[in-house]
């Protein structure tokens, strides 16, 4: 798999080997390993090196390729929102309580009826599955209940939103600053005028001065509709008559998120020349940034050991683990995605209602909410379970 920042031309050493990832997953004794890859499968004309990864023989692996070998995977844009053709049809069936191979067969049939890519792109399915496994299967932590609980607490922390706040300015204006989560690494900030002074003819508040670590396009900040900023999944859940800003790549955030709220107002008595007031806002590390992944990696020296080499002699292995965790990782991933896409909250989280849907949904693991800000203990349990060490 070719990273987005790989050099051009790239070689195998610049890529991420899927077999290396599968090898690490096998060492975790997962009950189901599913790879759904919506990408082109063109050969690298600059490099013919094939990785030599020795995998265990297991009957729990499913590959869903968006296209056949040596073919391209197409994307479609609608209202500014881009999806791969594979994902377009997959997301309609992802939560079906059917064997995963049955789900993929139906997706393949749906794609086969799509005129735009008929004869150009066809889903390819590879499977060694010998049992009925579905993405909607319940979590079966087995003897790893403590680890599952720690990971669930980490998951909950990665989705905690900053509290909404009311900002009072010296001019008498009052602003509501609100937050929503599109994903665990995508934060939506919106500003709303709660109170406008009577002698002010125009009043508007916008946000600015964000960290360089974040992917923020100034042209898409402080827009009057969510869609203008690229917010499509939450557009129907957000309050109206606000200015919206979408911040992505929160996993890159190394410091607390500090930004500026700027209030702009005009007065008829001042010939409507704009007057500005500012407030600096610190919301800490929101969503996934709260896990402090950079600090955790430094603690475990993963920057040196997580390079995903392509040969077994260099392939990293996990630290000792509890046995019999056959369904843990699959179950956790299923619960995470299933809860996010549940009927109550089909597209993400807004405010505290997200946690209510996680904890009250029948048939799913309850996600405990940690009140303390001290997550060092969680780090040691969670990160050590994923720690990579060289052989």
From TrEMBL:
Domain named MALT1 immunoglobulin-like: residues: 158-294
SUPFAM superfamilies: Caspase-like
Superkingdom field: Eukaryota
Region (Disordered): 338-357
Pfam families: MALT1_Ig (PF18703)
PANTHER family: MUCOSA ASSOCIATED LYMPHOID TISSUE LYMPHOMA TRANSLOCATION PROTEIN 1/PARACASPASE, MUCOSA-ASSOCIATED LYMPHOID TISSUE LYMPHOMA TRANSLOCATION PROTEIN 1
Protein name as it appears in the record: MALT1 immunoglobulin-like domain-containing protein
Biological source species: Pleuronectes platessa (European plaice)
Lineage of source species: Eukaryota, Metazoa, Chordata, Craniata, Vertebrata
């Amino acid at each position: 798999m070719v990273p987005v920042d790989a050099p051009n031309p790239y070689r195998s050493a610049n890529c991420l080997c899927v077999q290396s990832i599968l090898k690490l997953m096998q060492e975790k004794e997962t009950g189901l390993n599913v790879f759904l890859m919506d990408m082109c499968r063109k050969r690298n004309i600059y490099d013919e090196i094939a990785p030599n990864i020795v995998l265990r023989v297991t009957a729990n692996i499913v590959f869903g390729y968006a296209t056949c070998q040596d073919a391209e995977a197409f994307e479609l844009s609608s209202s500014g929102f881009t999806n791969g053709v594979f994902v377009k049809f997959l997301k309609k069936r992802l939560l079906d309580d059917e064997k995963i191979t049955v789900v993929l067969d139906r997706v393949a049939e749906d794609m086969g009826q799509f005129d735009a890519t008929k004869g150009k792109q066809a889903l390819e399915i590879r499977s060694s599955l010998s049992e009925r496994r579905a993405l909607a299967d319940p979590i079966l932590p087995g003897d790893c209940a403590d680890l599952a609980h720690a990971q669930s607490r980490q998951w909950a922390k990665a989705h905690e939103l900053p509290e909404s706040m009311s900002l009072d300015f010296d001019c008498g204006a009052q602003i509501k600053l609100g937050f929503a989560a599109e994903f665990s690494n995508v934060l939506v900030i919106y500003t709303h005028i709660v109170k406008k002074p009577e002698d002010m003819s125009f009043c508007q508040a916008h946000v600015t001065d964000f960290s360089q670590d974040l992917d923020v396009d100034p042209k898409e900040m402080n827009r009057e509709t969510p869609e203008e900023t690229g917010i499509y999944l939450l557009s129907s859940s957000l309050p109206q008559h606000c200015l919206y800003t979408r911040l992505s790549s929160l996993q890159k955030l190394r410091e607390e998120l500090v930004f500026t709220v700027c209030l702009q107002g005009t007065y008829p008595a001042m010939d409507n020349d704009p007057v500005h007031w500012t407030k600096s806002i610190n919301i800490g590390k929101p969503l996934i940034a709260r896990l402090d992944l950079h600090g955790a990696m430094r603690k475990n020296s993963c920057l040196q050991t997580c390079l995903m080499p392509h040969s077994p002699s260099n392939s990293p292995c996990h630290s000792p683990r509890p046995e019999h965790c056959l369904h843990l990782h699959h179950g956790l991933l299923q619960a995470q995605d299933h809860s996010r896409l549940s009927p109550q909250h089909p597209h993400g989280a807004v405010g505290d209602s997200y946690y209510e849907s996680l904890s009250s949904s029948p048939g799913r693991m309850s996600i405990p909410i940690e009140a303390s800000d001290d997550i060092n203990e969680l780090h040691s349990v969670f990160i050590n379970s994923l720690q990579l060490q060289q052989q």
